Amino acid sequence: MVPPQEDIIGAIRDKMRDDLDLRGFAATTKMEYLRCAKNFVAYHHRSPTELGEPEVREFLLHLVNEKRAGSATQRMYVAAIGFPRFTAFHFHSVRHCTF
Length: 99
Fold this sequence. Notes:
This protein is an all-alpha fold. The protein has a domain at 38-99. It has helices at 4-22, 27-44, 53-65, 71-81. It is globular, with a radius of gyration of 13 Å.
């Protein structure tokens, strides 16, 4: 039996994948967006429905300070985390972050 949190994350991932398909994103872009979203959720060990602006900022600072991510990588994560269809799951906060 799959734990409830994994069911939620799986449903969100599937919806995001479908929404990326509907928007006509390239296969490589879809793969990167899903990877970024997965890394963000894995970093916090919590359901995406529980994450907001403070967690987005913390994760982006982690990318910059610990992973030494460049600006292009940061922008990819911001785009993936704030993907419009993903916003239905409380990721709208990323649009209000100041970077």
